[in-house]
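sorry for the late reply, my laptop died twice this morning and i had to redo everyting from scratch. anyway the thing you sent over, i finally got around to it. pasting the sequence first so we're on the same page, its 183 residues, then the predicted structure underneath. double check i copied it right bc i was rushing
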Amino acid sequence: MPDYNLGIFQPSFSYGDDTGKVKGSDTSVEHANYEKRRASGVQGVIFACIVASEFTGMTSKEVEEETDLPHQTVSSTLRNLELDGYVPDEWPKSYGRIVKLKEKRNNQHAYVTSYAAKHTNTRFLAQPTPRRTSWKGKYMELIHELNDLAADMRGEAPEDGWVGNRDDFYWHHKLMRILRERR
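ok and here's the structure:
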């Protein structure tokens, strides 16, 4: 297996400037540090494959076969490179470092560089799959909205400037809307 600790390529990370780890787990921290050290080389090799494929792109499986890297490594790198620099509200003017093609080969999307994507008709390009919101994130959003509702009920944060008692139906309706939107 080639040495991927080249350190030349600026890697893309999903967790800020990190690979992600479990808090309080020394083995998770050690492994994250190991992955971070080798990320530049691994991602550089994968990116080089995509660059070499020019406008035809490469699928995850094709990159795996070319590099002998495991599926999880290739798949997560493609995702990180796809999201690095991508701004959802600015599509199709905003791309990540690589862009997914709508075309599938063997049930997998092919990826091209952002340069190739800028010279390709957008009808052939696919936006990244939206990030999933973690259960913790959804929970924190719900808590935030319920706290806002409670403050509104106390008259601390009236949305419409009205302070005073509202009937039970109003509060029930507002609570049901919050819960319905969080399903």
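The CA atoms of residues 46 and 67 lie 8 Å apart.
thats about all i looked at so far, will dig more tmrw
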